[in-house]
Each structure stands twice: as C-alpha cells, then as structure tokens.
Amino acid sequence: MNDDAIVRALLGRPRSIALVGASDDPVRPSHQVMQRLLAHGHRLYPVNPSGAGRMILGCEVVASLADIQQPIDIVDVFRRSDAVAALVNEMLMLSPLPEALWLQLGVRDPVAEQRARQAGVTVIVDRCPAIEITRLAL
Question: What is the rounded CA–CA span in Å between residue 48 and residue 52?
Fold first, then answer.
C-alpha cells in the first residue's frame, strides 16, 4: 500500500532505517538516498555483506539485518527483486518486527510482499523515500 498518509507517517519523524544494499560509491542511488535520509534526521544502518565493518557517511556497515543491535523501524531495500524473498525471511526473524518494508523503484516480489503484510509489516513498493520526502514536503 502506497497511501500518502502512510508514507508521510513513516518518513515524517526520525526513524531507524536499515538500508539494505548500501554503497560507499557517491554516484550510486543507495548512497544518495542514505545521504538524504541522514540529512532528514533518520538513523541509518547500512547493510552490505561485502562492506561489513567499513563506514558509509559515518555509519558502520553491517553484514545482515540480524547484526543490527537496535530495533529497526524501516527496512529500505536497494537489491534486485530476486533477493527480496530471502530478505523478507531474514526480516521476519527480527524481534521486534520492523514497522515497514520499503522496496525501492523497480524492486518487486508480490509473494514476499504479501508474507510481510501478513506478519503485520507495512509494505511500500516502487517508491523512493528521498523522492517522497521532497514530494510530500516533509
């Protein structure tokens, strides 16, 4: 569900966000979105197994969602659609569950999305939080 009121509620106040597929390359969309979310006051936890232990924009990269030692409000996914099912499996093992699963532009897995919804997680698809912050003037 991509209702503007839900998007506004998710992004309108500082949240803890796991950014899966984070990159330290400034030209990559995930890096730019991470920069925008940090500037908007969100706490970011970059997730990328190949970068674990390094820093991106002052945030330590972890290998997996399970490595984040704080509750996560939103899991923002910068991965290919074929990686979403395994990521949802990992997300559903977290306690507490994140409030939302956010799939970036072009990322879709209807079956995994439905599993997340059935677990009580809000699912946002085919939107970018950085674009939404500007569009909704948050």
Answer: 6
Residue 1 pLDDT exceeds 70 = no
Q: Which two tokens stand for residue 77?
A: 């996914």
pTM of this structure = 0.95
Reply yes or no on whether the pLDDT at 41 is more than 80. Answer: yes
Contacts of 78 (CB under 8 A, 6+ apart): 19, 20, 21, 22, 23, 29, 30, 33, 104, 107
Residues 6+ apart with CB under 8 A from 133: 11, 36, 37, 40
Per this entry, what is the length of the chain? 138
Cross-strand partners of 16: 43
